[in-house]
Amino acid sequence: MPRHKQKKKNNKIENLSQTILNILRKDHSQAFNYKQIAAKLQLDDPSSRNQIVKKLKDLQGKGSIQEIERGKYILTPSQNYYTGKVDIAGRGQGYIIVEDLEDDIYVKSKNLNKALNGDIVEVYVFKRKKGGKTEGEVTKILERKRTEFVGTIQVQENFAFVDVTDYKMYTDIFVPKNKINGAKNGEKVLVAMEDWPEKADSPFGRIIKVLGMPGEHNTEIHSILAQYGLPYEFPQEVEDYANKIDTSIKASEIKNRRDMRDVLTFTIDPKDAKDFDDALSFEKLENGNYEIGIHIADVSHYLKAGTELDDEAYERATSVYLVDRVVPMLPEILSNNACSLRPNEEKYTFSAVFEMNQKAEVVKQWFGRTVTYSDARFAYEEAQHIIENPKDETHTIPSKISITDKEYTVKPEIADAILEMDRLAKTLRTKRMRAGAISFDKVEVKFILDENNNPEGVYFKESKDANKLIEEFMLLANRSVAEFIGKKEPKKTFVYRVHDEPDDEKIAALENIIKRFGYKLNTKDRHSTAQSMNKLLKDVQGKKEQNLIDTLAIRSMSKAMYTTHNIGHYGLAFDYYTHFTSPIRRYPDVMVHRLLQHYLDGGKSAKEEEYEEKCGHSSDMENLATNAERDSIKYMQVKYMQDHQDQEFLGVISGVTEWGIYVEIISNKCEGMVRLQDLNDDRYEFDREEFAVIGQRTKNVYQLGDEVYVKVKNADLVKKHLDFTMLGHRKEYKN
């Protein structure tokens, strides 16, 4: 036998006990005999087989394995197997998050055994170090999180590789020549992973779609959608189905509804809104109270359960709002036409109608299907102008903020309704804040785009009284619907929007950071935490650190989610809460409408398991949409900064790590990184405790919250990453 083959064989024999255990562990539910183990090890000579038989007996004697039938062995059942979710960290190693375990299980890259980020796996824990990491090995992949990836293709003569964009993907994907699907070298593609052979370093795949050249606008936007598995067009059969729906208003249907067409009704939405899924009605009653209706597009009238249109809406679960487009949950025939509460049109609606007194207390409520007629449409800016100018008896909207670009006057009864509802909304908000609600009015970054979707400028969208007026009445409807069903006896299955109390560790981490800026929290109890959080958010308004602290405060909170198990909503300080007001763009609202009508009709409780699964899917899709939206903003920020390479920007240090300093530009909220290796005036070391890097020789300090000047060094559109050059501290640099 050649020497290299003999050496390889000897290695296999030397580690035989461990190798046999690994084979049995990989598939611990299956029994193996000595021949099957020999075949797996590619050892077929008598001497090796005898060694395997001997080792099996040794391991049986030690209790490591059991003989379950003559000559067939399995691993001794162990409590060391868990099921969990893979979270890939740097350099291809990962952690398995197991719900029942306090600590995550650390897995070295060689023990991941082809598991990828987000996969559900079985993991064997083999080390429990005192004071160290719990370590394990992936023994089985139970469910792949995803099999489609976005990346850049490198085409060779007879095959290709796709370098995946996602930094948590630690391997490229091999594509045989016959599965390249016309992709050219350097193009961005969507690749499907089809197989990962035992001995192969990379999985095998095929190209599903060519997205275009990296850096091109449509390529990058479509890549963001493809990366999260979000569609950007409807299948033809779904479009055809939607286009055939009869959307006319029929007298026979009106008979089954409360007719509210004669009540003063209007919408207030963003200037560029295409769909209006909520309207408000206002009527002063003879007893001095008000009847206020929150009217929501009756999507479930058109969207019938079990149809291909409903299946598509459920799969999408939400509309996705990217910087330059909306990817709607429903086709345009419904979202922008039949279900959009456009002015001067009759519409089918689902309504929550409240009789309220002067103190904004609800004295009577009614829920049900209605038919309404919107008398007017306002942009937030127009409604805001009315609120800010209550003494203007003509209620004139100037041309510069008018939707039509022309000056016009608002009917007195509509202006009075807006002013009275603004007063009631402020009362509702004050009550909510007193009850312990938290006010997250985070500044939103918006872009002014030219006709080619290039960013010409940046502006900040802030929430004013007109926005808050709509918000308060939507909150009232959502809360009241949830309470109405939630308090029913016997208990009924329902879809709730819940928000858990914040995690103590995250709050402690937030406290640690904000004290650098001179702020503190009182975390004695739930109420004091909420109150001091509100004070913090108010105190930072307009300060350089506002965006950083707003972001960190939001991250310290639990994530809101959909579930049938009500635990209340911490952030809003409500015991019952749901989503009822946006069925055009959120599937949970459609479920809420269906369940509410079912229970109004005296129906039995729906199946909890079925709705819990739908809630889980809706929460997952909401997270994907949020990530896609965030990526599209990041992409547009990088694109904007590409055109400002020579400019000096004032920023605030928003993060400090061992590899670099993150800086957020104050004027446009773009965040980039100054790499430590690029700070050439000294050698800087990271001080974790101080959230700072310190120059060894100069003792110069760059600390979280410091104001600094930076310049763009590199703007990478494909990776959506900005590299900055540090110019220096604000004080020293400009003096």
TrEMBL record:
<dbReference type="Pfam" id="PF00575">
    <property type="entry name" value="S1"/>
</dbReference>
<dbReference type="InterPro" id="IPR011129">
    <property type="entry name" value="CSD"/>
</dbReference>
<dbReference type="InterPro" id="IPR022966">
    <property type="entry name" value="RNase_II/R_CS"/>
</dbReference>
<dbReference type="InterPro" id="IPR004476">
    <property type="entry name" value="RNase_II/RNase_R"/>
</dbReference>
<dbReference type="InterPro" id="IPR012340">
    <property type="entry name" value="NA-bd_OB-fold"/>
</dbReference>
<dbReference type="InterPro" id="IPR001900">
    <property type="entry name" value="RNase_II/R"/>
</dbReference>
<comment type="function">
    <text>3'-5' exoribonuclease that releases 5'-nucleoside monophosphates and is involved in maturation of structured RNAs.</text>
</comment>
<feature type="domain" description="S1 motif">
    <location>
        <begin position="646"/>
        <end position="727"/>
    </location>
</feature>
<keyword id="KW-0378">Hydrolase</keyword>
<comment type="similarity">
    <text>Belongs to the RNR ribonuclease family. RNase R subfamily.</text>
</comment>
<keyword id="KW-0963">Cytoplasm</keyword>
<dbReference type="InterPro" id="IPR011805">
    <property type="entry name" value="RNase_R"/>
</dbReference>
<dbReference type="Pfam" id="PF17876">
    <property type="entry name" value="CSD2"/>
</dbReference>
<dbReference type="InterPro" id="IPR013223">
    <property type="entry name" value="RNase_B_OB_dom"/>
</dbReference>
<dbReference type="Pfam" id="PF08206">
    <property type="entry name" value="OB_RNB"/>
</dbReference>
<protein>
    <recommendedName>
        <fullName>Ribonuclease R</fullName>
        <ecNumber>3.1.13.1</ecNumber>
    </recommendedName>
</protein>
<dbReference type="Pfam" id="PF00773">
    <property type="entry name" value="RNB"/>
</dbReference>
<dbReference type="InterPro" id="IPR050180">
    <property type="entry name" value="RNR_Ribonuclease"/>
</dbReference>
<dbReference type="InterPro" id="IPR003029">
    <property type="entry name" value="S1_domain"/>
</dbReference>
<keyword id="KW-0540">Nuclease</keyword>
<dbReference type="InterPro" id="IPR040476">
    <property type="entry name" value="CSD2"/>
</dbReference>
<keyword id="KW-0269">Exonuclease</keyword>
<keyword id="KW-0694">RNA-binding</keyword>
